[in-house]
Amino acid sequence: MKIAVPKEIKNHEYRVALTPSGVRELTGRGHQVVVQAGAGEGAGFPDADYEAAGATLEANLATLWQNAELIIKVKEPQPEEVERLSPDQILFTYLHLAAEESLTQGLINSGATCIAYETITGAGGGLPLLAPMSAVAGRMAVQAGAHSLEKAQGGAGILLPGVPGVAPAKVTVIGGGVVGENAARMALGLGAEVTILDKSLARLEALDHRYQGRIKAVYSTADTLDEAVRESDLIIGAVLVPGAAAPKLISRAQLAEMKPGSVLVDVAIDQGGCFETSHATTHAAPTYAVDGVVHYCVANMPGAVARTSTQALTNATLPFVMALADKGWKQALADDPHFLAGLNVHAGQVTYPAVAKAFGLESVEAATLLS
Ligand SMILES: NC(=O)C1=CN([C@@H]2O[C@H](COP(=O)(O)OP(=O)(O)OC[C@H]3O[C@@H](n4cnc5c(N)ncnc54)[C@H](O)[C@@H]3O)[C@@H](O)[C@H]2O)C=CC1
Ligand SMILES: CC(=O)C(=O)O
Ligand SMILES: [Mg+2]
């Protein structure tokens, strides 16, 4: 199969969809991989390494896109990329469609087969192609939050661990999944006082057991959220309802209850954000303040640590890329119901119910498209 790997164009996005090692696995199976010249530079993978792995380099964007049967990316396609898609092509990348109606419409209009990393499920539960980036973003959320608490960033001037004689900061993480647990681990390691709120009792039980009371694992209700709002110095939003828009858990009115200079890090911003006052920001201008509360809402956090993230992402995506390339999309999805859960749009139809529901569209059962 002819596979294209374009250079990412989102603001400060330095990841690339495949490492040279990933390319080598594909070319070794007889596939043709075309990498945009310079695509891996930001992640520390020079063009020469891709050539050595058997890829062809292409500088002309139109040629790169036109000739591809399968396009692999990292971030959701930007408008100029959506324009380049055609009906016979497969797009495999993060999509986060429930947060972006115009992108959804663009992909419907393209006629392409669009498979989202983030809705592919795992045999043992979870979302295996989202998990590695969630681990990165969860760990980064604490770095971002700690930095934002500094006075020069508009924060309250609080050091997360405190010092002997001064109490540590209070950190609340809403959503105790992959992002949430990684954030909590980092905050705990830095010496903060950490609470996780979740709606899943099974998840709270697992966290309580794993951290032996060093993290408070609390059921999320309007009351426990109110308490978090009043008392926390840093709140990290890490909830997910797979494929759907994130629920809004802290309202604008509640910001008045927060301490001045406290910080909200909304990792769930790629699904629309879980705070009413969140809007997506970029690594170039990551924060803004509303009512004295600093908001950090970068939708591609792992792009900042592109080397680590590119390796972690390729580890997770490669088996699926190989299945698509070896078998074609219909057979690859027919053989694996977890992979089938990744199909979001095909031939002008939405196939993921939560995305269709977000925009009042009809959805088609993905399994009916495979014969
Ligand atoms: N901004 C960025 O750069 C990145 C953002 N993300 C995003 O972070 C979010 C979280 O991802 P994961 O941790 O992998 O998901 P996950 O599925 O592992 O965890 C989500 C948790 O949220 C909980 N939850 C759902 N609704 C809730 C509610 N109303 N109240 C409390 N808890 C609730 C679930 O029970 C679950 O434990 C996703 O939107 C994901 O796309 C992930 C990576 C990078
Ligand atoms: C998951 C996601 O949105 C990211 O890694 O950028
Ligand atoms: Mg986005």
From TrEMBL:
NAD(+) binds at residues 134, 198, 203, 220, 239-240, 267-270, 298-301. GO terms for cellular component: plasma membrane. GO terms for biological process: L-alanine catabolic process. Residues 4-137 form the Alanine dehydrogenase/pyridine nucleotide transhydrogenase N-terminal domain. The active site is at residues 96, 270. Residues 149-297 form the Alanine dehydrogenase/pyridine nucleotide transhydrogenase NAD(H)-binding domain. It comes from the Bacteria. It is an enzyme of class 1 (oxidoreductase). SUPFAM superfamilies: Formate/glycerate dehydrogenase catalytic domain-like, NAD(P)-binding Rossmann-fold domains. It catalyses: L-alanine + NAD(+) + H2O = pyruvate + NH4(+) + NADH + H(+). It holds the Pfam family AlaDh_PNT_C. Substrate binds at residues 15, 75. Keywords: NAD, Nucleotide-binding, Oxidoreductase. GO terms for molecular function: alanine dehydrogenase activity; nucleotide binding. Its EC number is 1.4.1.1. Belongs to the AlaDH/PNT family. This is Alanine dehydrogenase. It comes from Onishia taeanensis. The lineage of its organism: Bacteria, Pseudomonadati, Pseudomonadota, Gammaproteobacteria, Oceanospirillales.
